[in-house]
UniProtKB/TrEMBL annotation, chain A:
GO terms for molecular function: transmembrane transporter activity. It comes from Serinibacter arcticus. The keyword Manganese does not apply. One of its GO terms (cellular component) is plasma membrane. Keywords: Cell membrane, Membrane, Transmembrane, Transmembrane helix, Transport. Pfam families: FecCD (PF01032). SUPFAM superfamilies: ABC transporter involved in vitamin B12 uptake, BtuC. This is Heme ABC transporter, permease protein HmuU. Belongs to the binding-protein-dependent transport system permease family. FecCD subfamily.
Length: 351, 296
């Protein structure tokens, strides 16, 4: 391998290993916690039994098994996927914008996707079922990404001010679409729309996991594929071309990947902002900006953050399921502000 | 070391050639009918006043700018039809401003120069080539430092190391010495000369005409988008030509101990500093706001 990989191999292994362990622990704990408590060992044994390994440790509660497999596991799996998808969306977006503040939520991709999903719900385009929602979210997200990209970039760079203001504009337009759909929709549609805007994993079914999983996995695989080229893009578009990167093709590919991962996440979990901002940033601080490490570490990190947030959302107030988007925003908003101040100081201005 | 610096198939055929290039940017004519051959084993310096089109010509050779007329050939093929990755194995470029979006370390940045050789036999030499390039650019001690924390000159040398780590037959350098101290200016051009001796073709934009006189094999003097003169330093760097092109009186000195002509702008004799400057007391500035500035 190349020189830089060797110097920080230990830290990288430690980080990836630690995150992987955290994901497993959170999955087991999260699946066991709720109104119906199931001990971690019973959760593990239930999973093992499903894949054909008999442990001789049954789930003691009579409804435990069905609670696990119809309510808890779909929710936990979707949380895992959504967290990974949002974090990867953030990594890709920051890479292609050349700006650590670019994030699907900030730039308006999430609300674009939510607007697309709202259209389907209110106008009742149900012919394609769950895929219809995902597709509409994808179209909305893609439109928002392209719009933000075309307006925010100048000479191959994105100034922070332009980026944030573009996000304001894109968010405003998407917000208008969502508002209009709220106005048009009946009571049930309105409830669903409110759900998009708050973000929640409540009521997840396997069908939704089945749609989100392939999309997000494609996004992750795509991100892993372009990782090295994203490194080179950090040199600036001109120099990236000098070392052999087909910048135009890379940009288009990455924009589509951002839209795929973000829309899949938003379509079934609503707008959960700032995961794509905080996770890659923290990982860059720990092991540097090389995308070969950043992508897998962010996948795991995103999953950890979302699983933890969902656990808190379900347990912090008894008998209530708090909106998860609210929780990530409470932490992410101030973090974004801090990052903004820091970037400003470093750049000597708001640009 | 195995390197793609092997001579071109025909020693005489240019590695790159600009043919009657015309460039228009924002409505104004930047380059007009400029032709330039880039041959193996030759160090070509592009010189001329600000806005003469030096950097633009370099960008055209690099493939960043499409000329409205004329074209560039790379190893006999049209540059516009050469895939970017293939191009990256023929020519390396150091641009003036060295920006980086994320805080990679210096060694990571230099290793980026190896990207075009991924998946080829040359990839095996990556570590050795990167180490060698960093030593040649005198940035080996900076290997673990984050690029944004480097000084301007250190950044420029790291970018130079990245360019030479690419191991291409053609090297295009836009003011590589601009941010460097005297020692590193000399060291960089000695390194460039060594690469030229090994068979590389180098096109470099330089402002310091004495450096040009000492190191260039051929000087291309640009003026208002056209080539005003072209040839060995002794023929192009003359008092008459430079005075005309730079619109400032210029002296050219031939010193027996220096290789190449030394170029000096003609200056008026130095004004003697006024006495007592250091004793002057700065007038105090009142920190108390006046009535008008105080809000009610």
């Amino acid at each position: 391998m190349s020189l830089p990989a060797r110097t920080s191999n230990g830290r990288v292994a430690l980080l990836i290993g630690g995150l992987a362990v955290a994901v497993v622990v959170l999955v087991v704990v999260s699946a066991g916690v709720g109104q119906l408590r199931i001990p971690p060992l019973e959760v593990l044994s239930s999973v093992l039994r499903k894949v054909g390994i008999e442990t001789g440790l049954p789930v003691t509660h009579p409804n435990g098994e069905s609670a696990l497999w119809t309510v808890r596991f779909p929710r936990v799996t979707l949380g895992l996927l959504v967290g990974a998808g949002l974090a990867v969306g953030g990594v890709l977006m920051q890479g292609v914008f050349g700006n650590p503040l670019a994030e699907p939520g900030v730039v308006g991709v999430s609300s674009g996707a939510a607007a697309g999903a709202c259209l389907v719900i209110v106008l009742g385009w149900t012919a394609m079922g769950e895929w219809g929602v995902a597709l509409a979210a994808f179209v909305g997200g893609l439109l928002a990404t392209v719009l933000a990209y075309l307006t925010a970039r100048q000479n191959g760079r994105t100034e922070v001010v332009t980026l944030v203001l573009t996000g304001v504009a894109v968010n405003a337009v998407a917000g208008a679409v969502i508002a209009f759909m709220t106005f048009l929709g009946d009571t049930q549609a309105r409830e669903e729309i409110v759900f998009w805007q708050l973000g929640s994993l409540n009521g997840t079914r396997w069908v939704q996991v089945g749609v989100a999983a392939p999309l997000i996995l494609v996004g992750i695989a795509g991100a892993a594929l372009v990782a090295r080229r994203l490194d080179l893009l950090a040199l600036g578009e001109r120099s990236a071309r000098h070392v052999g990167v087909d910048v135009e093709r890379l940009r288009i590919g990455v924009i589509v990947l951002v839209a795929v991962t973000t829309s899949a996440a938003v379509a079934f979990a609503g707008i959960i902002a700032f995961v794509g901002l905080v996770v890659p940033h923290v990982i860059r601080m720990l092991v540097g900006p090389a995308h070969r490490v950043l992508v897998p570490a962010s996948v795991l990190g995103g999953a950890v953050v979302l699983l933890a947030a969902d656990l808190v959302a379900r347990t912090v107030v008894p008998y209530a399921d708090l909106p998860i988007g609210m929780l990530t925003a409470i932490v992410g908003g101030p973090f974004f502000f801090w990052l903004l101040r820091r970037t400003r100081r470093g750049a000597g201005g708001w640009s | 070391m195995t390197a793609p610096l092997a001579a071109a198939s025909h020693a005489d055929a240019p590695l790159m050639a600009a043919r009657a290039v015309r460039v228009v940017l924002g409505g104004s004519l930047i380059l007009d009918d400029v032709s330039l051959d880039v041959r193996a084993g030759e160090l070509v310096a592009l010189v001329g006043p600000n806005g003469a089109g030096k950097s633009t010509l370099l960008s055209v050779l690099a493939g960043d700018l499409d000329p409205v007329a004329g074209g560039v050939e790379v190893l006999g093929d049209a540059l516009a039809r050469t895939p970017v990755r293939e191009l990256a194995r023929v020519r390396a470029v150091q641009v003036q401003e060295s920006q980086l979006s994320f805080a990679f370390t210096a060694v990571e940045v230099v290793a980026m120069g190896r990207a075009p050789w991924r998946g080829t036999a040359a990839e095996e030499d990556d570590d050795a080539v990167v180490t060698d390039a960093m030593e040649r650019a005198d940035v080996a001690p900076l290997a673990g430092r984050r690029f944004p924390s480097l000084s301007g000159g250190e950044k420029a040398r790291t970018s130079f190391a990245r360019a030479i780590a690419q191991r291409t037959r053609v090297l295009l350098l836009d003011e590589p010495t601009a941010a460097l101290d005297i020692r590193h200016q000399e060291a960089l051009l000695v390194e460039v000369s060594r690469l030229v001796e090994e068979g590389a073709a180098v096109v470099v934009v330089l402002h310091d005409l004495s450096l040009v006189g000492a190191f260039a094999d051929r000087v291309v003097l640009l003026r208002e988008g056209r080539i005003r003169a072209e040839g060995p330093p002794h023929d192009v760097l003359t008092s008459a030509l430079l005075t005309e092109v730079y619109e400032h009186p210029v002296d050219v000195i031939h010193h027996p101990d220096y290789p190449g002509p030394v170029v000096l702008p003609v200056r008026a004799p130095r004004r003697r500093p006024a006495t007592g400057v250091h004793d002057a007391v700065p007038s105090p500035v009142s920190p108390i706001p006046t009535d008008q500035e105080t809000s009610p």
